[in-house]
Structure formats: C-alpha cells, structure tokens
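A note from the maintainers: we've had questions about how concatenated examples are separated. There is no special marker in the raw files; a new sequence line simply starts the next protein. For clarity in this README we add a label.
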Amino acid sequence: MASFVRSLVRSVAASPALRMPSRRLHLHEAYSQDLMRKNGINVPKGGIAKTPEAAEAICEKLGGRAVVKAQVLAGGRGKGHFENGFQGGVHVVDSPETAREIAERMIGFRLITNQTGRAGRICNMVYVAEPLDIIGEYYFAIMNDRKSQGPMVVASARGGMDIEAVAKEDPDAIVSEPIDITKGFTHEQASRLADKMKFSPQARESAIEQMMKLYDFYIERDATMVEINPLAADKFGHIIVLDSKVNFDDNALHRQKEVVALRDYSQENPLDVRAIQNDLNYIGLDGSIGCLVNGAGLAMATMDI
C-alpha cells in the first residue's frame, strides 16, 4: 500500500527536472481559480495585477490586508527568490502601500524556485487575494490513473506541505479513491473521503460538496490533473480552495476555448511554443541532434542502437 501511495503522489508532485517534457496546458493559479468560481467552487476574493498600482488598488478594495502571490507556472514559490535578491514569491501585507511595494519587487523579475531551474521564470503579474482565518489545511487531488484506467482521487488530512514528504514519512496519512468514469464521483465516495480526511462535523458537508464540485470541474474542463494544496477550512465550517494547480488535456483544447485564451506563452519553452503554433508533436531533449520521424516512440526506442 505504501509503495502504491508513493507512486500516485509522485505522478502528481514530481519535480519537472525529473519528468519528460510535457505539452499539457497549465494555467496560472489566479486564472484557474476564476474558472473554479464559475463552477461554484469556493475560492478567495481577489484580482490579478500587472502593475504595482493595480496591486495597491485591489488590496484597498479587499480592506487593506491581502496575500500577494507571484504568478509563475512553478511550485515552491513561497520559498523561492527573485533575480533581484527579493526573497519569497508569496507575502502577506497589511496595507495597500505595502502591496504596491511587494509587487514592484516581483513584477518584471524572474522567480527562481526548486522547480524552475537556475534561469527561473518571469513574473508578469501577481495575484492579490483576501487573507483568510484558517483552522485546518488538507490535500486533495484528482488525476488520470493508468492502473485503474480512470480518474483517481488522492487526499490527506495533512495539507499545506510537501505531499511527497508526507507520503515518505507517513504513507498512511494519504488516502486514495478510484472513480468509475461511467458513474462519476458519488456522494458515498465523497462522504467516505471526508471521514478519512477527518473534517470537523461543522465542515463535513461543505467538504463533500466542494470535492464533488471539483470533480465536476475536472470533467467539464477536460483536466488531466486538479491539485489543491491546501484545501482549507475556516472557523465557520466553509471549505475553500487556497492554492491550486490544474493541467488540461491538449487533445481536448478544441472545446475549451476559454481555457486556451488564458494560456501564458511567456511561461513556456520557446521551442514548445513554436511547435504548438505549427501543430507539431515535439519533445525537447539534451544534445544538439534532432530527429524528425513518423512515430516518436519507435524513434526514441531505437535511437541508441
């Protein structure tokens, strides 16, 4: 069981440096949460700021306190650093003026995290969101699972931290639930997960409702993965998506025009972008020799023979 859980978690959280390059579409956290809001999923109030002045204005609308998050397509933002020496891609601020100052040190600079490599990724905007009083943090993810040949839910009562570390230290803290694609994510399954995740009686019904809505979002938006870390509970028993990562199926983008319009090409490898624009299947590898073939699997399998 422990090795099964670890393999599931690795498929969600493995470092990009260890994975084969992928063409799956990723969206910024702020854009993903806007889409979730349309599906009735609880997310914090907030807005996208592409200038320091806009960050200040949004913070003022939120009452003067906010969380300012750098929008780059990489994990580990909170522990990262910018090329200008500024530490951290996530900051809690207590005034609109501070929101502007923080945004000035983020926007237009590269953020380096444990997932970006040394070059980092450019931060062109920040997400300014309301701060919430949280009493519990959980982990919740839905992904495509080859072994069960359908969606798989992976969840834990230990959210807000590196889920791979949790899987290594305490595999029993992570639970999984395969989903029959023909039946969907049932109320019975969501209830069972809510109990295993140890939600309070006050938050249990909200948790069941939000998890089922997240599955609906996963299906309706043709996602290949929806990862929420943390899925948070407030003192009123509301369950809220605080941070999210969503991948979308490239093969279904023809029916996801709204998603495609939100794609940020500045966060992608220029060679991948050129391949996308020319409708080519492209896999970038090390070295300087290219191979143009019909059937990449056969080509790569025989390349070293």
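[label: protein 2]
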Amino acid sequence: QNYGAKGILGRMIDELSSTYRVGSYSIAGNVKASEGETPVTTISPKHGMSEFTAKDFLKDQLAVLKSEESYSAFVQAYTSALGTSLETTEEFGKLLEDAEVAGFSDDQFAKGFKRVAQIISKNKETDTQREVFFVEGRKFDTHSDGGVYLEEALGQISDALKAFKAEMLRLNKWQDVVIMEASDFGRTLTPNSKGTDHAWGGINFIVGGGLNGKKILGKYPHSLRDHSVWNVGRGRVLPTTPWEAPWQAIAEWFGVNTPEMMDRVLPNARYFPASQLFTKDTLFR
C-alpha cells in the first residue's frame, strides 16, 4: 500500500486539469479522497466559508507578507497558500450567500448536499467545466443499534438526495451529476448484541440523471452459509466486485479517455480481469 498516494477524486480532477477548468471541494474537512495536485476548497456544511475574522485588523501585515519574496521555498509556499486561501474564502463566501436553494433539512448530510447544490447553481460564476465534491454523512458503526438509528440515518440520506435531485432538475443539471456512495467497510450479516460488527463486502449505490439505472451490478454470493467460499465467518462477506469497477466507468464518463490516463487514476485496475470492471456503456445511457 502506498500511503503517499493521492485520492480517487484528486487523481481524476488532476488528470483533467490541463484540458478543462476544474474545481475540487470538500464539505467534510481534509479527506484522503480529495487529495491531489489541484487545490481543494474546504467548506463547512453548517457555516459555509468561515471568514478569517482578523483579516482587517492584520491587513497591513498580510499585505507585506504577500508582497515580499523569500529565499525559503517553505515560506514562499506558505505565503502563496495563505493568500490564495484568503481570496478564495472571501469570493466563495459571497457566492454561497447569494446562492438560493430550497428543500433541504437541517441534518449534516442534507447541509452537505445543500452546499454542493449552491456551488453548482453558481457554475457560470465559478466558470468550471469539471468539479468533484466530497460529502460526509452520519456514522454507521451500529454495534448496539436495534434498528432505530439506522432507519433514521438512512431516512436522512434519502431525504437529502431527494432534495438535491429536485434542485438539480430545477437547474437542468441532473444529467450532468453522478453521486457515488462509499463506506469504509461493510457490516456483518449476523448480529452483534443489538447491532452488527465490522465486516468487508457490502452494497453500494450510484445515482445520477445520465445513468442507465434500475440495475444491480456485480456478483451476488451463491451461498451465505458460514465459512462458505464468500463468507469467512460471522456473515463477513468477501467483496465480489472491486472498487475499480464503478470508478472506471465514472472516470471514463468524466473525461478520462485514454489508457494512460486511466492507469494513473486507477493504478490497481490492471490486477483485475476486464470482466470484473465496468465501462461507461455499462453504467450510462
């Protein structure tokens, strides 16, 4: 494992940055998935762009800091990043204030998708052609949940996606959006006290206006008995489909259109047979 590797969203947007005007946004702080050479704009789901309150008080010192060059590469990089961050914060703060979207509830997941909808609604102002977003919802580490928490959390996801889809349809952008759901790990099929334990394989979903939807892709295990070929015990099911499968199709749809580009975006795809990977034609109309 390469711990210095960039994230899947970062790698995709980096590959297209020389061809398109791109943007990368995280509504969940600093996350691995967004890491890349392209700067990531971090936005709070609750507060939007958090303004640097001492900016006016320190404006003279900041002006000197930005104008002077340093022989130190570290100081120069920090100064450049600080200047860009302050400018981006001010610009995006005004942009989000002016963006009007409706129908979102007040939970964290809905707030995250509300921020995404606001940014997309200002696409003419941001002048971007390809954008990636990372949104995080509630935790699903349901060791002692009798079902109430899980039902509520899944309901919040459903409501947020409904509101987001409605806004994208209003903006005539639903055909241009793909949402890929992901989780750190699956859950056991057998209970752990009132809930479930950590596992491996699981079910994930993809939604978007351009998808050839209403399909279940991948391979369902032919047996779920304990210690069968796919079940290693306690209902811990081995994955039958690699993450590279859906991401290859999404990356191709996004504009990653040469084998060389795809190798950089999905360096481990080469270790899987083509029959286990999805193409753009598999997922999209």
